[in-house]
Amino acid sequence: MISLRGKSLTAVCKDIADGYVAVNPIFLKPLDVETLKGLIQEIMKLQTAVRGEKFPYNDLTFIRYRNMKLQRLHNALMVIKNFAKERGLKQAII
After folding, report:
1. Which SS3 state, helix, strand or coil, does residue 9 take?
2. Domain spans of the chain?
């Protein structure tokens, strides 16, 4: 089981979605290829789970919260993929 900063990758992805962890090149620098691959997979799983939840049509606060989660996850994916491209880690972004 791969862990990151003493947490599982699933917990780190939930923290990213909630805005507790900011994904940037400094955060990604000490990670190896396998950890990056695992992080990408967990982020994509969490995106699917958030999209699969029942849409809150009547509650604007929950709609905003859901969209912010999706936006943070998408931005984290883009940062990770660009980081991997710059480092020449093509096997991480497949």
Report:
1. helix
2. 3-92
